[in-house]
């Protein structure tokens, strides 16, 4: 699965907040999976100060805590995917709960790949990923919520185990926009994404 994801990564603008379709029941609320206005903000500041939207504070935990934190986050998504409004967008600029969950699944896979690069190569340059283009191309809002729940859980378990095997948290990696990480800062930056998106679907 990681090899498949890596093959789909392309060099394009970094847009990071960094499967088969299923028939849709006629009574299921759904919003077409048209593209939203891309979020082009650089969220790396969450490593240094709390997020005022979701309350995330990187100063309150260590990098070694991230493995357990992501498993706890993953466990909260299946109930979200059972909601009747799972395909409904609450507004013109906000994804549906299903789209957020599919995005989080792919974030888990993407960061697993990047973590492997950092452990294998010297200061690797991450392949870029356009999250908004992926959401449309992969038709996130028509995917099966049960499948997404299973895949998200599996991806979280794999990434958690990979973080648990890290022995050198100082190994570096970088994005094409010039942002430089160590595995330590990378882990703290990463975990904000699924935490923030769980907050997005809980409002």
UniProtKB/TrEMBL annotation:
Residue span, DinB-like domain: 82-199
InterPro entries: DinB-like, DinB/YfiT-like
Pfam (any one): DinB_2
Domain of life: Bacteria
UniProt-recorded name of the protein: DinB-like domain-containing protein
């Amino acid at each position: 699965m990681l090899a498949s994801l890596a093959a789909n990564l392309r060099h394009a603008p970094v847009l990071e907040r960094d499967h088969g379709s299923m028939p849709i029941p006629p009574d299921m609320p759904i919003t077409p999976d048209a593209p939203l206005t891309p979020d082009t903000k650089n969220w790396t500041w969450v490593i240094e100060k709390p997020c005022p939207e979701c309350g995330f504070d990187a100063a309150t935990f260590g990098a070694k805590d991230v493995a357990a934190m992501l498993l706890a986050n993953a466990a909260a998504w299946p109930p979200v995917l059972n909601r009747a409004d799972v395909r409904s967008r609450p507004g013109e600029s906000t994804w549906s709960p299903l789209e957020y969950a599919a995005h989080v699944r792919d974030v888990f896979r993407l960061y697993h790949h990047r973590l492997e690069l950092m452990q294998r190569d010297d200061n690797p340059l991450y392949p870029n990923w356009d999250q908004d283009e992926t959401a449309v191309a992969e038709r996130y809002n028509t995917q099966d919520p049960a499948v997404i729940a299973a895949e998200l859980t599996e991806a979280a378990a794999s990434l958690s185990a990979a973080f648990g095997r890290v022995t050198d948290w100082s190994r570096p990696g970088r994005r094409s926009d010039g942002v430089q990480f160590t595995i330590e800062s990378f882990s703290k930056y990463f975990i904000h994404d699924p935490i923030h998106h769980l907050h997005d679907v809980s409002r």
